[in-house]
Amino acid sequence: MNPKTFLLVVINSVMFSTMSLWGATQPAISAGYNHSLFLKSDGTVWSCGANWAGQVGDGTFIDRNVPIQVIDDIVAIAAGEMHSLFVKTDGTVWATGAGNDGRLGDGSLQDKKIPVQVQISGVKSVATGKDFSLFLKADGTVWGCGSKSNGQLGLSEGSGNPSVPVQIPISDVVSISAGYNQSLFLKLDGTIWATGYNGRYWSGGPLGDGTNLTVYTPKQIMTGCMGVSVSGTQMGAHSLFLNSDGTVKSTGDNGFGQLGDGTRTGRYVPVDVLLSGSIKSVATGAYQSFFVKEDLTLWACGYNQRGELGIPGSGQWYSVPVQVQENIIGVASGTTHSIFLKADGSVWTSGTNDKGALGDGSWTDRGTPVEIMSLAIFLNATATDGGIVSGNGVYNLNDTATITASPSLGYLFTGWTGDLSGSTNPLILTMDASKSVRANFKKNLTDGDLDGLTYYDEVILHGTNPTLKDTDGDGFEDLFEVNTGFNPVLATSTPDALSTIRTAVEFRFNAASGVSYRIEGSTDLDVWNTVETDIIGAGAVVTRFYTIENLPKRYFRARRN
Questions:
Q1: Is the Cβ–Cβ distance between 367 and 373 less than 8 Å?
Q2: For 465, how many CA atoms within 13 A lie in the half-sphere containing its CB?
Q3: CATH code where residue 506 lies
Q4: In terms of domains, do 116 and 170 share one?
């Protein structure tokens, strides 16, 4: 696997990574009116919730309260009010669910209960509104199909809704978002363009152009942006604009505080969201707004009827964002249910569940998020002091992973602990489940040149050659020079701490491999004091030099600890 970094923000469909973890397919979540889509890292899509028009895509019209696999080889998803879109790796798009107004893009107006191919290719992402669909091609053009009665497709006024995708007059687009009957486009230059219904009968304009007039062709709204999200219902819609500096602005309906500006006043021009700190992504639900910070904390504002903000609720509203979750990298929200994607690949849901949209196997509303599935398999490899480990990442089921332990200079790799054991390095394994493993390292205390200095001491502390007893070739062994103040790597050095050479004694003893010793000194053979301890034997002679300057007598002995 080659981990990638990916960021894409689209309405009710989130697919992005924060730590360069994901594999070839970016895990994604998407929330429709009351159904949910989940894209796993292996490219399979799983679906649950309301299915009266076939939007789940399982070949039936039966509501599902447990996610069921419906399609594979997918890289992007979007859930609309009653339809779903799937982008395959080859750039084709497949659709299922309600077909009226031509929203499925297959040339018909019939509902479909299994995915059918849309008449378009070269697509990299999709977005779904109430009864229309948007398609972003790799060349930056945007195409749409379905209802255009309120300008949401950016086409001139006129009769007839396109049942196959037609090109919208805009280019250089990098991200798209679809609301109830609005469309927003983020261009490569950071500008936001908008088209569609703008709240003529609402309190607040989701397009943010200062009016409540319907817009029929895309017009520029904002500059300096890196993300956008719009959502709503027939009662109102609102939009979020993520600025390149990590701040957020909002506009539109604000009946439940979803704009996050501390009021419940609708806005026709974007206002600042009252949230400090750097924001990395935004998402909107019908009456909710979500903000993921760089530290992966999730903040939310708006209506919390049944816990859709990710905290227990029974009709509360918040006009200023409050922290609701941690370790979150993605959010998708429908009308009254929400989906949360955590950094470990696990998926949590909360809110209304009468149609099974939460996917927890029940029909019971959840005020507190419950874990329902995982979208990826993780390899979490860590290391103790003294080295690094590579191979971390998110993998598909049964992928082959390779983890390599690399000791720092002066250290040795000693083996793996955690879900794996042994000392094979590199280690090749099959990712049949998520695994956590630690690479363990220790100081290299061997003495290859038998000069009395360990490998660690020579390369880390003294800079000497661990294969030579006399690194600088001046006739004095490294240990003697270290103990008497000479520079062991400079042949012409004089003692650093002494102005004259002092009288010294050489002390040697045989040290058994792996045994810890101490050296003691005495002047009368009666009282002994520790001179040096924790000397680990290597099955060879240990040599030490000690000064006896100004001492009439001095004795040394080696003892086992």
A1: no
A2: 10
A3: 2.60.40
A4: yes
Q: What is the pLDDT of residues 50-86, one digit of tens each?
A: 999 999 999 999 999 999 999 999 999 999 999 999 9
Range of the domain at 193: 9-375
Cα 283–Cα 289–Cα 291 angle in degrees, nearest 5: 60
Same domain for 121 and 158:
yes
DSSP 261-282: SSS---EEEEEE-S--S-EEEE
Q: Minimal CA–CA distance to 185: which of 155, 224, 220? A: 220
**How many CB atoms lie under 10 A from the CB of residue 397?**
14
The pLDDT value recorded for residue 115 is 98
**Distances in whole angstroms, Cα of residue 113 to Cα of each of 55, 71, 121, 352, 466:** 7, 12, 22, 23, 72
Contact between 92 and 73 (Cβ < 8 Å): no
Residues 244 and 387 grouped into a single domain: no
The total number of structural domains in the chain stands at 3
What is the DSSP code (8-state) at residue 422? B
- Is 205 found in the same domain as 237? yes
For 223, the token pair is 């500059």
Written as six digits, the tokens of 365 are 């509303």
CA dist 222 and 337 (Å) reads: 29
Q: Are residues 319 and 205 in the same domain?
A: yes
pTM of the model: 0.73
What pLDDT shows up at residue 501? 58
Q: Are residues 108 and 212 in the same domain?
A: yes
| Residue of 475, 480, 474, 469 lying closest to 546 (CA atoms) | 480
Mean pLDDT of 507-518: 92
Q: What is the separation of C-alpha 162 from the centre of its chain, rounded to a whole number of angstroms?
A: 38
User: What share of residues in the chain are helix, strand, coil (percent, to 5)?
Assistant: 5, 45, 50
The CATH code of the domain that includes 359 is: 2.130.10.30
Please name the residues in contact with 28: beta carbons below 8 A apart, sequence gap of 6 or more: 13, 14, 15, 37, 38, 39, 76, 77, 330, 341, 375
Report how far residue 126's alpha carbon sits from residue 13's, in angstroms, rounded to the nearest whole number: 9
Domain boundary among 399, 419, 443: 443
Would residue 104 count as lying in a domain? Answer: yes
pLDDT given for residue 235 in this prediction: 78
Residue type (1 letter), 198: N
Residues 485-507: tens digit of each pLDDT:
788 998 876 554 444 556 778 88
Question: Does 319 share its domain with 396?
Answer: no
* Cβ atoms 137, 123 nearer than 8 A: yes
Write down the H helix ranges in 319-423: none
Contact predicate 513/507, CB 8 Å: no
Quick one: 349 and 471 in the same domain?
no
Residue 254 counted as domain residue: yes
Q: How many whole angstroms separate alpha carbon 117 and alpha carbon 104?
A: 9
User: What count of residues does the chain have?
Assistant: 561
d(CA 29, CA 348): 10
Task: Among 390, 423, 443, identify where a domain stops.
Answer: 443
Q: What's the confidence (pLDDT) of residue 408?
A: 94
421 alpha-carbon distance from chain centroid? 27
Q: Is residue 4 part of a domain?
A: no
At 139-196, the pLDDT tens digits run: 999 999 999 999 999 997 667 899 999 999 999 999 999 999 999 999 999 999 999 9
The per-residue pLDDT for range 233-262, each reduced to its tens digit, is 777 899 999 999 999 999 999 999 999 999
